[in-house]
C-alpha cells in the first residue's frame, strides 16, 4: 500500500453536518490510511456567505465559487451538505459529469431526482453514495442495498425523523407542550432549517421514498408519498393510546402488495410490545420484513451533527477504497423493476377515532351503523360521559379499506348528534 497517497475532497456546506464532517475527518487523520488506504485532504469548502464567522477550519479553505471546485481536477470526491434541490442538483450533476464521486446527505434531492443522478453516476463510472440521507448514523441504505439483497422484502416501516420522535417522546413522557418540545429539538440541531418539513411529515416522506425504492427495486418518488404530520396530536390522544396499550409514533411505511407498492407517512398507534414502540427521543429505527430474512430492526441516532457526520464519513471511506481499487461506480441504481405505487384510499388500515357527540340514546348506535354500512368493522369502543351533555367516544376499527373509512367519516361528520371529530389516527 502506498502510504503517501492523498485523496482530495471538497465540502459543499459547513453548517451542522458539514462542520461535523470536517471535524470527524480531522479527528480520523492518519487513521484513514489504515481504514481507506490513503489520507484525505479537504481542499475546499463551499459556503453561501463568506462573511460568516466560522470555527474549526482554516479560513483559506472557504470559497463561494463552485467553479473553483468543479475545475480542480485533483478533487475526486465532492461531499454535498448544503441541502435543498437547487443548486445542489446542478452541482452534483456537474460533479458527476466531471468524473468526481459524490457523497451526499440530501434526502430532498435523492427522493425526487435519485434516478436521474444515479444514471449520471453510472454513465460517468462514479460513486454516488447517500447513507446519511436516511436515519443519520443508522446504516440502513447499505443494509437494504447489500446486506439484505438476498431476501425479497415486503415491508419497511421506520421512525425516520428525529425531531418528531423527540417531540412525541417529550409530550408522552414528561407532558411537555408541543411548542416547547419543538423549540428544544431545534436547539439540539435535529430539526431542518424550516421545521415544517419535520412536523408535517415531508422529511419522513422523502426518507421512506428513498428506502422503498431500494427495498423493492422500483423507483418511488417523494411526490408519490401521501404525508400527514404530528401537529394535530394532542395530550389526550397520547393518554388514550396508552390506555389501549399503544404509543403514538410518526411512521414512514412502505409495503409491497400483490397489486403494487403502498407507501405513506402518518402518525400511528404502535402496540407497546412492537420493537418500534420502544424507540425514544431523537433515535430513529427502521423495521424490515422479508421472506428469507424474516424481521430485522436497525436503530440509532437519526439526526445531529456527529451521528450524521459518521454516516457521511463511512461513505467517504468507501469511495476512497473504490478510488484506490479502481472500482468506482460498482454499486449504482438498483431500481430494475417498475412496480406501480398504489393510489391513496385503496390501501388498508386500522383506525383510532375520537369524537364528541350529544349524550343521547342512539348516538353510538348511529355511528356504529354508519361504519357497518361502509364495511368498517369495530374492534374496540370506549365511552366517557362528560358533564355538559357531550360524551366522548373512542373507537378502534379492524383493518379496513381506507376509502370505506373516509366515506363513513364524511357521513359521521354530518350527523346531527356530532359535535366534533377530534382525532383520526391510524393503528399499526
Ligand atoms: P445547515 O446547517 O443549514 O448548513 C447548510 C450549509 O450549506 C451552510 O454552511 C450554508 O452556507 C451552505 N449552503 C446552503 N446553500 C448554499 C449555496 N447555495 N451555496 C453554497 N453553500 C450553501 O444544514 P445541515 O443541517 O448541515 O444539513 C445539510 C444536509 O444534511 C441537508 O441535506 C440535510 O437534510 C442533511 N441532513 C441533516 C441532518 C441534521 O441532523 N442536521 C441529518 C441528516 C441529514 P452558509 O453557512 O454560508 O449559510
Ligand atoms: N430533521 C431531520 C430529523 C434530520 O429530525 O430527523 C435528519 O434528517
TrEMBL record:
GO terms for molecular function: homoserine dehydrogenase activity; NADP binding. NADPH binds at residue 107. Its EC number is 1.1.1.3. InterPro entries: ACT-like_dom_sf, ACT_dom, Asp/hSer_DH_NAD-bd, HDH, HDH_cat, HDH_CS, NAD(P)-bd_dom_sf. It catalyses: L-homoserine + NADP(+) = L-aspartate 4-semialdehyde + NADPH + H(+). Pathway: Amino-acid biosynthesis; L-methionine biosynthesis via de novo pathway; L-homoserine from L-aspartate: step 3/3; Amino-acid biosynthesis; L-threonine biosynthesis; L-threonine from L-aspartate: step 3/5. The active site is at 207 (proton donor). GO terms for biological process: methionine biosynthetic process; threonine biosynthetic process. L-homoserine binds at residue 192. It holds the Pfam family ACT. PANTHER family: HOMOSERINE DEHYDROGENASE. Belongs to the homoserine dehydrogenase family. This is Homoserine dehydrogenase.
Amino acid at each position: 500500500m502506498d502510504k503517501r497517497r492523498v485523496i482530495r475532497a471538497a465540502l459543499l456546506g459547513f453548517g451542522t453536518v458539514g462542520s461535523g464532517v470536517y471535524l470527524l475527518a480531522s479527528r480520523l487523520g492518519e487513521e484513514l490510511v489504515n481504514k481507506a488506504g490513503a489520507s484525505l485532504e479537504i481542499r475546499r469548502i463551499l459556503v453561501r456567505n463568506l462573511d460568516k464567522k466560522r470555527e474549526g477550519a482554516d479560513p483559506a479553505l472557504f470559497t463561494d465559487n463552485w467553479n473553483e471546485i468543479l475545475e480542480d481536477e485533483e478533487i475526486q470526491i465532492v461531499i454535498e451538505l448544503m441541502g435543498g434541490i437547487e443548486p445542489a442538483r446542478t452541482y452534483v450533476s456537474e460533479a458527476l459529469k466531471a468524473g468526481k464521486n459524490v457523497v451526499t446527505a440530501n434526502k430532498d434531492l435523492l427522493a425526487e431526482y435519485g434516478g436521474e443522478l444515479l444514471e449520471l453516476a453510472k454513465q460517468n463510472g462514479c460513486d454516488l453514495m447517500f447513507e446519511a440521507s436516511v436515519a443519520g448514523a443508522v446504516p440502513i441504505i447499505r443494509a437494504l442495498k447489500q446486506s439484505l439483497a438476498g431476501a425479497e422484502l415486503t415491508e419497511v416501516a421506520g421512525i425516520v425523523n428525529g425531531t418528531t420522535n423527540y417531540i412525541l417522546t417529550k409530550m408522552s413522557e414528561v407532558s411537555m407542550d408541543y411548542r416547547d418540545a419543538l423549540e428544544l429539538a431545534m436547539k439540539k440541531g435535529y430539526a431542518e432549517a424550516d421545521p415544517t418539513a419535520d412536523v408535517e411529515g415531508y422529511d419522513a416522506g422523502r426518507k421512506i421514498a428513498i428506502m422503498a425504492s431500494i427495498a423493492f427495486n422500483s423507483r418511488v418518488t417523494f411526490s408519490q408519498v401521501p404525508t400527514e404530520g404530528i401537529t394535530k396530536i394532542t395530550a389526550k390522544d397520547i393518554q388514550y393510546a396508552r390506555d389501549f396499550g399503544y404509543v403514538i409514533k410518526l411512521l414512514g411505511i412502505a409495503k409491497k402488495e400483490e397489486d403494487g407498492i403502498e407507501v405513506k407517512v402518518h402518525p400511528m398507534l404502535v402496540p407497546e410490545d412492537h420493537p418500534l414502540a420502544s424507540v425514544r427521543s431523537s433515535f430513529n429505527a427502521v423495521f424490515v420484513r422479508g421472506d428469507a430474512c424474516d424481521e430485522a430492526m436497525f436503530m440509532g441516532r437519526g439526526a445531529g451533527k456527529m451521528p450524521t457526520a459518521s454516516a457521511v464519513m463511512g461513505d467517504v471511506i468507501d469511495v476512497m477504497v473504490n478510488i484506490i481499487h479502481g472500482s468506482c461506480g460498482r454499486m449504482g441504481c438498483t431500481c430494475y423493476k417498475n412496480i406501480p405505487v398504489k393510489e391513496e384510499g385503496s390501501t388498508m388500515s386500522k383506525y383510532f377515532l375520537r369524537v364528541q357527540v350529544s349524550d343521547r340514546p342512539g348516538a353510538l348506535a348511529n355511528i356504529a351503523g354508519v361504519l357497518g354500512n361502509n364495511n368498517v368493522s369495530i374492534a374496540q369502543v370506549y365511552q366517557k360521559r362528560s358533564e355538559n351533555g357531550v360524551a366522548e367516544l373512542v373507537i378502534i376499527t379492524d383493518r379496513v379499506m381506507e376509502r370505506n373509512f373516509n366515506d363513513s367519516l364524511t357521513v359521521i361528520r354530518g350527523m346531527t348528534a356530532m359535535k366534533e371529530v377530534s382525532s383520526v389516527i391510524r393503528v399499526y
